[in-house]
Amino acid sequence: MAEYGSDIIIDMLKSLGIKYAALNPGASFRGIHDSLVNYNHNKNPEIIVCCHEEIAVSVAHGYAKATGEPMAAIVHDVVGLQHAAMAIYNAWCDKAPVLVLGGTGPMDTTKRRPWIDWIHTALVQGNFVRDIVKLDDQPMSLGALPNSILRGYRVAMTEPKGPVYLCFDLDLQEARLPEAMAVPAPDRFRPPAPLQAEQGAIEEAAAWLCGAENPLIIADYMGRNPQSMLSLVELAEALGAAVVDRGARHNFPNTHPLDLSGREKELVAEADVILGLDVMDLFGALHRHDARTQTSVPAFQPGCRIINVTLADFAIKSWSTEYMELSPVDLPILADSSVFVPALTEAVRRRGGPAQAVLEDRCRTLERRHREIREESQAVLRKRWDESPISPPRMSQEIWEVIKDEDWTLVAGSFRGWPRRLWTWEKPNAFLGGYGGGGLGYAPGASVGAALGLRDTGTVCIDLQRDGDLLFTNSALWTAASYSVPLLMIMTNNRTYYNDEEHQERVAVARSRPVENKGIGMRMETPPVDFATLAKSFGVYSEGPVEDPADIQPAVRRALAVVKEERKPALVDVIIQAI
To answer: What DSSP string describes 44-58?
Structure first.
């Protein structure tokens, strides 16, 4: 029987099917911690100890992307929430459902300990993250606990999904229940069905697309629903439309003849109807930006009609402008793409689609252009095969030779697009996408969370880990080792914050200053970081640094054996050139 407020909190998490709670221990949630261990026996949810709150939230972020289900991340009051804020922002931008739970010192000032309870109590804590969560709540009574958690779960899981923050007063956690409390059944509080567009908008979009000479589909975030990739294939084939995958998730098979990712600007210029599906930055997709003048001009032709399907208008806050520049749209549609695309495909089929001769001719042309893109990538691979240090395309290909027969998922690390250009991405969730808010420190924790969520599926989870990113949150390696998370981490180690080198080069050129100084303040060469030893110190199997490309495959095969056979994490540090 539940005896304390914190027991009710755990009962609610259990009823919602929450399997894990990532946390860095903190006194302000000591009641919840005790209930997890002594009341719940540390099972469903099970504690996943992290050494930093940013890692705890990132673990939950990666878990949500891999499984489609939320995980709890519990953070200490005020200071822990501030540590977690970057990871919460990443989850907010990435539309990932995370239940961030926090504790606070007693709101009753007469019960506070001197000094510590005062500096660790805020009025109210949720104010700190209010603009980067879908909901924050701080229930004020024992009776309010169940509804607070039910509402938080429902809001987090309603599209567009995102993190929520629920804060629990220390006194409330530790208060004895005056009588037995019934835990509400969550079925009657579940998230709503996906939002569908009204039929008139579906029919109008179908009519425009069927009548188009050069229809183009741009998909970005719709792959968060794995079945959507298969639906998009059916729509593209029914229309004979080129598809560009922008990569916030894996949206379209890279081997499909209608996949023309990498040709976005020229396709936008040719199109007479463009369908955007969950495109996070539609303006950026449809405009050319001049870095010299800092101006943007339309990349689409006059008269091109634009259809935009998104739920992003439901997730706008005022603090951060991650909602991007407003783009011109001829047919704006508020709908969940997972239900909209199948309905649109049916509408296209009812209309008979494009004429058969037009469809076949268009598909032949697009297939030829698709082959050209694939052949160009292979040509670059051949040209850069023997470069030293190791080139990114060479490293990508060497890894592919090891994992191509495995059931794999790239949980983090787009590696400048080379895996998508050289590997075979045909199944849903082949790539879980980027880090949302662009904050460094995401991938180590998120990769652990994704591999934790998929560890009983037999999937080989791969993290192409950037060096600077790992230095932000390297103790995620300890969490991976402590919980035997089977994760294959391969360092794409160029020993520099190279993205900023590019910016410094651009500024130097514009100002007629020495470009050769671009690496000052960027390089991590003196001394170089020994990532293999770092990983080993955390209990992770590791090899490296690998500098000879002939050594990549043997090292990755040995690491893969550890991941598959011993069900443990492994890291291979590979030294590569910057570009």
So the answer is: SSEEEE-SSHHHHHH
Per-residue confidence (pLDDT) for residue 91, from 0 to 100: 98
Of 138, 168, 189, the residue that ends a domain is 189
Choose the final residue of a domain: 373, 405, 421.
373
**Does the structure show a pLDDT above 90 at 294?**
no
Give the chain's end-to-end CA distance (angstroms, integer).
Answer: 60
Do residues 404 and 502 share a domain? Answer: yes
Q: Looking at residue 456, which CATH number applies to its domain?
A: 3.40.50.970
For residue 391, which of 549, 559, 543, 572 has the smallest C-alpha distance? 549
Can you tell me the distance from the alpha carbon of 347 to that of 199, in angstroms, rounded to the nearest whole number? 9
Q: Are residues 335 and 464 in the same domain?
A: no
What was the pLDDT predicted at 293?
Answer: 83
Degrees, nearest 5: CA angle 466-470-474: 160
What is the spatial distance between Cα 49 and Cα 222, in angstroms, rounded to a whole number?
Answer: 32
The full 3-state SS of 186-219, as one line of letters, equals HHHHCCCCCCCCCHHHHHHHHHHHHCCCCEEEEE
The label of the residue with tokens 């489609």 reads 68
Q: What is the 3-state secondary structure (H, E, C) of 266-305?
A: HHHHHCCEEEEECCCCHHHHHEEEECCCCEEEECCCCCCE
In this structure, the answer to whether residues 185 and 246 fall within a common structural domain is: no
User: Looking at residues 168-172, what average pLDDT do you find?
Assistant: 95
Q: How far apart are CA 397 and CA 268, in angstroms?
A: 30
Residues 364 and 395 in one domain: no
Per-residue pLDDT at 458: 94
40-58, pLDDT tens digit by residue?
Answer: 999 999 999 999 999 999 9
209 and 341 assigned to the same domain: yes
Closest C-alpha among 492, 522, 486 to residue 505? 522
Q: Which amino acid makes up residue 139?
A: P
Range of the domain at 340: 199-373
Distance CA 553, CA 533 (A): 20
Question: Per-residue confidence at 499, pLDDT binned at 50, 70, 90?
Answer: confident
Residues with Cβ < 8 Å from 452, sequence gap 6 or more?
20, 48, 59, 62, 63, 483, 485
Model pLDDT for residues 252-273, shown as the tens digit of each residue: 999 999 999 999 999 999 999 9
Question: Which of 491, 417, 430, 421 minimizes the C-alpha distance to 460?
Answer: 430
420 and 523 part of one domain? yes
Determine if residue 324 is left, alpha or beta; phi over 0 gives left, psi from -120 to 50 gives alpha, anything else beta: left
In the chain, how many domains are there?
3
pLDDT (tens digit, 9 = 90+) per residue, 353-401? 999 999 999 999 999 999 999 999 999 999 999 999 999 999 999 999 9
Residues 73 and 156 in one domain: yes
Q: Using the predicted structure, report yes or no on whether residue 291 has a pLDDT greater than 90.
A: no
Task: Give the mean model confidence (pLDDT) for residues 111-115.
Answer: 93
Residue 222 has pLDDT above 90, yes or no: yes
Query: What phi and psi, each to the nearest 5 degrees, are found at residue 304?
Result: -65, 130
230 and 178 in one domain? Answer: no
